[in-house]
Amino acid sequence: MLSLLNLLTEAVVQALQELWNNKLRAFLSVLGITIGIFCVISVQMMLDSVERNVRQSFQKLGDDVLFIDRIPWAEDPDMNWWKYAKRPVPSYEDYQAIEKKVPTVDKVAIRSFLMQQEIKYRGTTLDNVLMVASTHHFSEILDMELAEGRFFSPIESQLGTAVVLVGYDVAEELFGQAEAAVGKEVRIMGRRMVIIGVIKKEGKSLLGEGFDQLVLLPYNYMRRYVDTNSEAFMPLIIAKAAPGVSLDRVQDDITGVLRGQRKLRPRETENFAINRISLLTGLIDAVFLVIDLAGWLIGIFSILVGGFGIANIMFVSVKERTGIIGIKKSLGAKSYFILFEFLTEAIFLCLLGGTLGLAAVFLLSLLGNTYIDSFDLLLSSQNIIVGFALSFVIGIIAGFIPALNAARMNP
To answer: Where among 271, 290, 309 does a domain terminate?
Structure first.
C-alpha cells in the first residue's frame, strides 16, 4: 500500500514537472479537456436549471387538479383546429353543474381573462394589465398566498361584489412601498372597486410573471358587463380532487356530469377536454430528453478532441523519457509500475482540465444569475461528479496505450 502511494505521488510530481517544463504543450492539451467538460456540464447545468424551474411552476398548479377546456393538451390543436373551434367554451353553468353534482370534487372554480385593461388610482394609471375573473375557490386550488388583506368570500363571489385583489407588482406601481394598498379604491373598466388583498410576490419564471402582474376580481362581477362565454376570454374550469380520490375517478364523474349538462347522446363524443398536469410533464420530459442528447453529442465531440490532445502529449512524453524508463527497468522497476506511472499522469492532466472546466461553468452560473431573472443557474453536485468522472475516464482511455508502450519497452 505504501509503495502504491509513493508511486502515485511520484506520478503526480512527474506530471507537474512535465507541465512546468512544457507549459505551452501541456496548456493546449489540458485546454481541450477544459473546453469539453465546460461544454458538457454547462449544457447540463442549463437544462437542469430550466427543467427545475418549469417543474416547480407546474407543481404550483397541483398534481391532483383537472383542467376542463375545449382543447386536449396532449394533441396539436392545429391538426384538428376546426373540430376544437366548434366546441363550446366552458361555461358558468358547466361550473355550477360540477360543483353541485360531483361529490368526488373537493373544490372547483372557473376563471376567465381580460387582456390589456386599465387600473387607475388617483393620477396613476396602469395600462395593459391582465385581469383574471374567478370564483372564490380559485385562490385555494392554486395555493395563492397573500402579502396583506384577504381573498373575496363565497358571498362576495356569488353576489359579484366590487372587490379586487392585486398582484404585488401592481400594488407597488400604484401605491409604492410606503402606502398600504388594502382599503384603497381604484377604477377598473371605469367602475369603482375596493382592494381587499395583495398577492404575495412570486417573482419571474419561464412560464411568465405568475400572479405579480395581475388583478383578480369576482367572476360574477365580470359577468354583468361582458359575455364570459366568449372564447376571447379563454374561460377554464379547474377542479381539485377530494382527499383520497383518484384523478381517474374524478375525471369519469366530471365527464358524466358534463355530458348530461351539454345534453350529449350516448354515441356522441365529448365536446370538451379534461386535462391534467401529467400530460404537460410528459411532453416536457420528451423535449428535455432530445435537448439533453444533443448537448451530450456536442460535449462528447469536444471531449474527444481533448482526449486526442492528452494522448498526443503522453506519446511525446514517453518518447522523451525513454532513457529514464530504461534506467528504472534496469534497476528492477516492474512493467506495471511504469504503466501505472504514465496512466496516473494522463489521468492527472485530464482531472486538471476537468477542474478548470468546472470552474469555468461555476463562473458562468454566477455571471448568468446576475442577468437572468426568470430562473437560477445552479451547478449541482451531480454535475460536478459527472464532470470529474468524465475526466477520469478520458484520462484512462487517452493514457492507456502510451502507458502500455512505455511498460513494454526493453530496458
So the answer is: 271
